[in-house]
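Appendix B. Chain record.
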Amino acid sequence: MTKNKEELDYDVRIVDRNIREGAVSKKDYDKYVKGLPDVEEKGEPLVFEDEIEEEASLDQEPEAAQEESETEEEETQ
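Structure tokens predicted for this chain:
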């Protein structure tokens, strides 16, 4: 994926510096952002493995979750 010079000037990682240094005006940046296509429908939720494990432990019976918690504590000691 090749980016042209304009796209690099407006890159979210450096645009604040470019505005501060005068390489890009705030007005031009706002115009650039408004012209970007809406790609919301292409997005996918991020799921982290920690969240999956946490949800799985919440789905367990309360006694089983307590026993698992005690076992984990013993292993870390």
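Further analysis of this model is presented in Appendix C.
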